[in-house]
Design goal:
By secondary structure, the chain is mainly beta. It has a 5-stranded antiparallel β-sheet with strand order 1-2-3-4-5, with helices on one face. The protein is elongated, with a radius of gyration of 19 Å.
């Protein structure tokens, strides 16, 4: 999902339903081959929609350009995976959740209808 479309969705929800909670988080997803920390960004909003309490989430992370596997043919040798991340390109995922009173947890909604 493009970031502009995400902003339009937030504006529409705020206008129609009001936003209960809005959060931005960064979570470390690993280190690149240079030892630099790589983070993904999560933006979340919660609101009372037509289906009850709902949460939308946009997860943005750098694109993996290359994956290197280091291994040894010796017995007991370690296997390591190194990732090379793009400095300029990112990918985004959109997820939608509905609050379940029975399970007291968020249940993911199929988000095919929100795809570009």
């Amino acid at each position: 999902m493009h970031y502009d479309k995400w902003q339009n969705i937030i504006a529409m929800i705020e206008e129609k339903f009001g936003i209960l909670d809005k959060k931005e988080e960064q979570e470390e997803i690993g280190k690149d081959v240079n030892g630099k920390d790589v983070f993904e960004k999560k933006e979340k909003i919660e609101f009372n929609g037509p289906l009850g309490k709902m949460k939308l989430e946009l997860i943005t992370r750098p694109i993996v350009l290359e994956k290197k596997t280091n291994f040894s043919r010796r017995i007991g040798g370690d296997v390591g995976i190194e990732y090379i991340y793009s400095d300029s390109e990112e990918s985004s995922r959109f997820k939608a959740y509905q609050w379940s009173k029975e399970q007291n947890d968020w249940l993911e909604i199929n988000s095919d209808m929100f795809a570009d």
